[in-house]
Specification:
11 helices; 26% helix; globular; TIM Barrel
Length: 386
């Protein structure tokens, strides 16, 4: 998408916005030292867009079969029900849509998606994503699910959301009960750092589990946030203890302006080897990568064919070979800038003041459209949608 087609700049940078709750988890608003701030505060690295990066790195547009409906994998389809988030993650891979995709799904768009599902019986699972579907109110989200159930009563519903992590008050008893009444359904959340697994997060998860809704987690391997074995060990072991299945650990996508977050695949493999020596298999996610050019998601360890000087060669689900860039020199340079914020971090101090993001310098905060997502209807990219 070029600038003339996209005068607002959508896809170059996510909008800027954060819930007060999630902002409060940061011990500093400096993204170079705090792993929470790094996920919502813009950095200079976002302006470095590499030739192989894209605002749609996993090929959503290519696999769009109806307005907002993406059918990439044979047995499941993804529906973008909303383009808003409570926190706009700086590592977002759906940059062409999140915050710029036209708001909530319309009745006409939902009807078109349902018509496709009715004539495509191979689809047995529908993922609700965005944006974040839980930015819709209870009644509105349940109406979407009910319309899908009307079209395809046999389909599993997967709700892909970050709100249990970034705005856990959204998961009310009423919402959990409403979703429980619409089973079979799963909730897949997106936690990247153990500091996100607060008492409030655990309360939200418990409400879902008591309603009969299984919960899984997908993380992204983020340089300077969680690329440290102790950090990942604490994250995954805590998730298991609270009843959340660690599902995937994703290698960073080739999203425009996110190279400062990506590790090398060698580092990801090394971390997984170390984790296997320390942890039960129950706590180990699959380390996966979305291949360039819409090649699909593959487990790194089984798909990796060889490592070349400038690329990793991996075999896709279709049997073709794909090349994922090997950014060794860039990682070394950026590591010198980032420091060691990914290491184990102390719990937030109760004396830490809550600092308003309005105090961020205009040169940082105004690079995205300032959107404070302090509450959502009905109680208050995502993840989990791959």
């Amino acid at each position: 998408m070029n600038r003339s087609e996209n005068p607002s700049g959508a896809g170059e940078h996510p909008p800027f916005g954060v819930s007060r709750y999630y902002q409060g988890l940061a011990q500093s608003l400096d993204p170079t030292v705090d792993p929470i701030a790094a996920q919502f505060v813009p950095q200079e690295g976002e302006h470095r867009i590499l030739p192989y990066e894209d605002s749609d790195p996993i090929g959503d547009r290519r696999y769009t079969v109806a307005p907002r409906l993406i059918h990439h994998y044979a047995d499941r389809a993804l529906l973008l029900v909303n383009d808003r988030c409570a926190v706009y993650c700086r590592h977002c891979f759906r940059r062409h849509f999140t915050g710029y995709g036209g708001g909530r799904i319309t009745t006409a768009e939902l009807d078109a998606a349902c018509a496709y599902l009715e004539r495509t019986p191979a689809v047995t699972e529908v993922l609700l994503s965005g944006g974040d579907p839980l930015m819709l109110g209870d009644a509105e989200l349940c109406a979407v699910i009910d319309r899908l159930r009307q079209a395809r009563p046999d389909c599993l519903i997967r709700v892909c959301t970050r709100l249990p992590v970034v705005l856990p008050s959204r998961i009310t008893e009423a919402f959990a009960e409403a979703l429980g009444n619409r089973r079979p359904a799963w909730v897949v959340v997106h936690a990247n750092h153990p500091r996100e697994l607060t008492a409030e997060f655990r309360t939200a998860v418990n409400r879902l589990l008591r309603a009969g809704i299984p919960v899984a987690n997908q993380s992204v391997l983020l340089r300077g946030v969680n690329d440290h074995v102790e950090t990942l060990q604490e994250l995954f072991s805590t998730l298991v203890r609270v009843g959340v299945r660690p599902y995937y650990l994703f290698q960073g996508d080739l999203a425009a302006g996110t190279s400062h977050f990506r590790t090398t695949i060698e580092r990801g493999l090394e971390l997984m080897r170390e984790l296997r020596l320390r942890m039960s298999g129950l706590a180990l996610p699959t380390y996966a990568v979305d291949l360039p050019d819409g090649g699909g998601k593959v487990p790194v360890e089984s798909a990796l064919i060889r490592i070349e000087a400038t690329a990793y060669v991996l075999r896709g689900p279709n049997g073709r070979e794909y090349r994922y860039p090997r950014e060794v020199d860039m990682v070394k340079r950026s590591d010198q800038e980032v420091g060691t914020r990914a290491g184990p971090t102390p719990a937030p101090s109760p004396e830490t003041p809550s600092v308003s993001l309005r105090r961020l310098s205009p040169s940082t905060a105004s690079r995205g459209r300032l959107r404070r997502a302090e509450s959502a209807p009905g109680g208050s990219a995502p993840a989990g949608d791959r």
